[in-house]
Amino acid sequence: MNSTDLLRGGLFGLVLLLLLSCDRPYDVRPAGTGTDRMSVIFPNYQDVTVPCNIAPLNFYYTDPAGRRFTTTFSAGGLSFTRKGRDVVWKQKDWTRLLAAAVEGDIEVVSAWRDGDIPVSFRWCIHVSPDRIDPYLTYRLIEPGFEVWDDLEIVERNLENYDTRLISDWRNAGNHCMNCHIHAQGRGDLSMFYLRGEGGGAILNRGGTLRKLTLRDSAMISPTVYGEIHPGGRFGVFSTNIIVPTMHSYGGRRMEVYDTASDLCVADFDENRMLTFPETARDDVFETFPVFSADGHSVYYCTAQARTLPAGVEQLRYSLVRIPFDDRTGALGTPADTLWSAAAHDASACHPKASPDGRWLLFTVAAYGTFPINHRECDLCLLDLRTGETVPMTVVNDDKSDTYHSWSSDSKWFVFASKRGDGMFGKPYFSHVADDGTVTRPFLLPQKDPHYYDKMLRSFNVPDLGDAPVGFDAREIGRIWKEVPAESFE
Q1: Cβ–Cβ contacts within 10 Å for residue 1, how many?
Q2: Residue 279: phi, psi to the nearest 5?
Q3: What number of CA atoms fall less than 13 Å from residue 396's CA on the CB side?
Q4: 346 within some domain
Q5: d(CA 202, CA 125)
Q6: Ordered DSSP codes for 355-397
Q7: Which of residues 12 and 163 earns the better pLDDT score?
Q8: Which of 78-92, 152-166, 255-269 is predicted with the least confidence, judged by mean pLDDT?
């Protein structure tokens, strides 16, 4: 038996397994390089739950010996048939099918010939009535370690395939730029950083853009990680002395850690920074601060300082909460521990509160604060009403799952995963029900079903927005060249 016969036999056995259950994922890798879980189709959209306003789910069949592919989709009395290895939708047909399937399933029948063997199986796509925020921003970056080039921050319309550059290397002198974040999914309240000469924090508040120098003499560094208060007046940030180092063992590529980190608050109305002795101690690291849904608390990650880099594998962060005064911008005390690093023998990173105040989504790694290079890094969902974590087995994979954000209605979240190839981060979406049930993630759909096989950049920090941000890369370029940064000294 030659290699082709072995491949055909393996695929035929796989399809027999699919006939037994359309709910079970399976483990045969697609032909493409930009893969998620191994499957007969890529992207693997079998048994996923999608919002009722998502762009068409285009895909292709991965059987290299297959021919005469036919795919039939049915829902609510409508039926569409697509022929060929690549399944590509017209927008109007897909929109009709979604409308017919809301709160139900799209039933799919796939059929082809694997050599001389006829193959047929049924599967399904669940359609939720919960809409997703229609805009997603992300940074496109090559997965390097010490250099970067040609950075772009993109805004994608999730209801179709339209994209728009909101900042890019051409208009910003090829300077480094950090990822764009919304405040609770608001398109009219967001920010990102342009680094280097002429740069600053770019704040979008009500459609007005400002370039800010968020640092004063009491801070150990400019602001790094943070979030805007729901009211828009304040921002909470960490200041970090960040050190990258290369691993020499274990298949790990790179470690990034803080040798010092504190918390601060920016008052955007008064152009001032607020620092606090309680979060400026040399023996404690504090990082990744975000606001609670009501704006009355701040969640962040904290750890006892270690001698680094020797002690980096013992550096584990707990997740805590402190009061926030939304009249003065003051951080309160004491800190309330929500998730203990010592109790779990692991490290928490990147907390994100759902806008309805119910959930706190964060990542858990073996140690440290840079989980993107930790393949063991998983998402963890904390129920803020009960203090219990929700099982996330259906969401997490065997590669890094991190950099997540919520939709404005708290029904959906997006995250970046390196599942499959282990190198390139790609955006995946999951639904959260009222009881905490989460759904199997689906990959951001693209017009070209082979898009991810050819894409050599990562989607960094995908962030959901309910409306367009209202500016573009040319406007950012003008601000970079012509507008001085406002001082917060």
Answers
A1: 7
A2: -115, 30
A3: 19
A4: yes
A5: 40
A6: TTSSEEEEEEESSSS-GGG-TT-EEEEEETTT-PEEP-TTT--
A7: 163
A8: 255-269
Predicted local distance difference test score (pLDDT) of residue 412: 98
Average pLDDT, the chain: 88
pLDDT (average), residues 179-197? 94
CATH code for position 23: 2.60.40
For residue 86 the two structure tokens come to 């690549």
Q: What is the pTM of this model?
A: 0.89
Confidence of residue 176 (pLDDT cuts 50, 70, 90): confident
- Give the residue numbers spanning the domain of 245: 135-482
> Confidence band (pLDDT; 50, 70, 90) for 145?
low
Nearest Cα neighbor of 300 from 312, 287, 311 is 287
What residues contact residue 292 under an 8 Å CB cut-off, 6+ apart?
Answer: 298, 299, 321, 324, 353, 357
Tell which of 86, 107, 128 closes a domain.
128
Q: What percent of the chain has pLDDT over 70?
A: 89
CA 446 to chain centre: 17
State whether 27 and 110 are in the same domain: yes
* pLDDT tens-digit readout, 404-453: 999 999 999 999 999 988 889 999 999 999 999 999 999 999 999 999 99
Residue 404 makes CB contacts below 8 A (sequence gap 6+) with 350, 352, 361, 363, 379, 413, 414, 415, 416, 462
275 and 303 share one domain: yes
Residue 203 in tokens: 């704040």
- pLDDT value of residue 489: 78
Report residue 184's pLDDT band, with 50, 70 and 90 as the boundaries. very high
| Cα–Cα distance measured from residue 72 to residue 81, given in angstroms and rounded to the nearest whole number | 4
What is the domain count for the chain? 2
Residue with tokens 């406002």: 486
335 plus 208 within the same structural domain: yes
Tokens of 30: 């697609």
* 3-state SS, residue 120: strand
Going from the C-alpha of 68 to that of each of 83, 114, 343, the distances in angstroms are 7, 9, 56
Integer angstrom CA distances of residue 80 from 75, 88, 109, 311: 9, 12, 11, 59
Residues whose CB falls within 8 Å of the CB of residue 481, separated by 6 or more in sequence, listed in order? 198
Angstrom distance (rounded) from CA 377 to CA 395: 12
